[in-house]
């Protein structure tokens, strides 16, 4: 197996237990996070608000229309928090 690319970091992200946070590494260095196509960016007010919520919950950079919530580190607990946000008046 040969890596497709090599990314140099000043420090590895750590979990609260001091172990390497592999999910955070995946979220930081996905191709869409580096250079999303303009057509893939959220369109309209609702999509932009949902993307902002995703960015906040997932602590990630760019969110596109093709971004998979679970591949970006989301889980069922974060999804529950996400579904509670629209009723709080943010959408």
UniProtKB/TrEMBL annotation:
Key word Ligase present: yes
Assigned GO CC terms: cytoplasm
Carrier domain location: 41-91
Superkingdom in the source lineage: Bacteria
An example Gene Ontology molecular-function term: ligase activity
UniProt KW keywords: Ligase
A single GO BP: amino acid activation for nonribosomal peptide biosynthetic process
Keyword Protein transport on entry: no
Protein name: Irp2
């Amino acid at each position: 197996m040969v890596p497709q690319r090599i990314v140099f970091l000043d420090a590895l992200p750590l979990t609260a237990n001091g172990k390497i946070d592999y999910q955070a590494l995946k979220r930081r260095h996905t191709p869409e996070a580096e250079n999303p196509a303009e057509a893939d960016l959220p369109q309209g007010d609702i999509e932009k608000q949902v993307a902002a919520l995703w960015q906040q919950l997932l602590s990630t950079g760019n969110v596109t229309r093709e971004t998979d919530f679970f591949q970006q580190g989301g889980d069922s607990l974060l999804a529950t928090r996400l579904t509670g946000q629209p009723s709080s008046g943010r959408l």
